[in-house]
Every structure is written in C-alpha cells, then in structure tokens.
Amino acid sequence: MSRTSGPIRVVVVDDQPLIRAGFAMVLAAQSDIDVVGEAENGADALTLLAGTEADVVIMDIRMPVMDGVEATRRLGRLPEAPRVLVLTTFDTDEDAFAALQAGASGFLLKNTPPEEVVTAIRVVAGGESVVAPRITRQLLDRFAGKLDPSPRHDERLDMLTAREREVLELVAEGLSNTEIASRLFIAEATVKTHFGKILTKLDLRDRVQAVIFAYDSGLVSPSG
Questions:
Q1: How remote is the C-alpha of 85 from its chain's centroid?
Q2: Is 26 inside any structural domain?
Q3: What would the pLDDT profile of 81-97 be if each residue is shown by its tens digit?
Q4: H/E element holding 137?
Q5: Closest listed residue to residue 61, CA positions, set 92, 35, 34, 32
Q6: What is the DSSP string of 73-118?
Q7: What is the pTM of this model?
Q8: How far is Cα 157 from Cα 1, in angstroms, rounded to an integer?
Q9: Same domain (yes/no): 114, 174
C-alpha cells in the first residue's frame, strides 16, 4: 500500500489483550504513528481492514479462528494491502517462514524492546523490510525443508540483466548493500539502483520478498 502524508496508520492484531494494549500504549506516545484499530485474530483483522485504511499491520502468528499466516496471505491479495510485521518467538516458531512466504515484510520477536518496535514500523512504512539480510538467509536455510526441492524457473528472471541477477544472488546470500558493492567493485548507490530495478521488474515490495523469490525460482538454493 502506498504511503500517504500524515501519521503512519497501524493496526495491532494479537489474541492477547495485554499485548495489544501494550503496543497501543507505546505507539500512542509517538507523534508520527496512529493506532487505527485492533483485532484479536486474523479473521477479525480482515474484517477491520476492509473498512479501515492502514499502512502497517503488526500481526501475531498463532491465533484462533484464523492465524496470522493465512491473514497475511489474504491481505497480500488486496490491491492496496498494508505491509505486515509478524510477531514470533523466532527460535521456536517455524510459522515465521510461512509468514514471510505469505508476504510479510519482516518479523519481530514478542520481547522486542518498544523503541525497536517503533523503529521497525517506520522502516516498513517507508517501504523496507525489518529483517537483517543475514538473518533472512539463516531463517530460510533453517526451514529449507519447506522449500520446493525442485523449483521451476520463473520467467520473470529473464527480465533481469546479468548484473541484476548477480545482485539478486548476492542479496539472497545475505550480503548487505555495502558488502555487495565491495564484492562487485561498484558504488553502493549503484547497488541500490540495481536493486530498485529488480524490485520493479519482479513486482516485489522489499528485500525479504526478493530473497524468497530467489529461492522459489531456483536462482539460489539453501546453504549454497
């Protein structure tokens, strides 16, 4: 969903009232963020968002009625979908990987410090992901068994230039823009330009989706 001027509009989705209240309290203290709604499960979130414009949804994963993965997947089908940050325990919740595949722009630990939650919301609202490149790679490698063992070539890859494919491969390997620039002996600004073109050509929103695409298309494979 494209950002409009004014405060970042946030919806909090979690089946635990205390967690919702905690997020709402923290975010209410920010001059550039408005909590425009709360929901206790994915189904309620979809109903709420059908009539409420939002920029970012903080989405719990494991909830009754409809979990966060399915809700994220359904939100992603909307033409003006808000961006999603999933809540997870990371080390124990394998559904975090499914949420990324479903279109989430990143994930937060449930014990994330409040100031980091606020920063993450601003980053995601600005069109970026909140998952560090190496963490994205580690997550995908850990849950490699969930990937298609024989991914099919995606025709969208043919739209990329040789250099763009090279940049995408390095992004999927977990390198930052600075590291890619060093590896390819080009300016970091040039890396950013290439990556912007990659996102446009592949119709992707951010780094997380680019890494998922690289795996799903067979451009790269887990651990190598």
A1: 6
A2: yes
A3: 899 998 887 656 677 77
A4: helix 133-142
A5: 92
A6: HHHTTSTTPPEEEEEE-SSS-THHHHHHHHT--EEEETT--HHHHH
A7: 0.75
A8: 24
A9: no
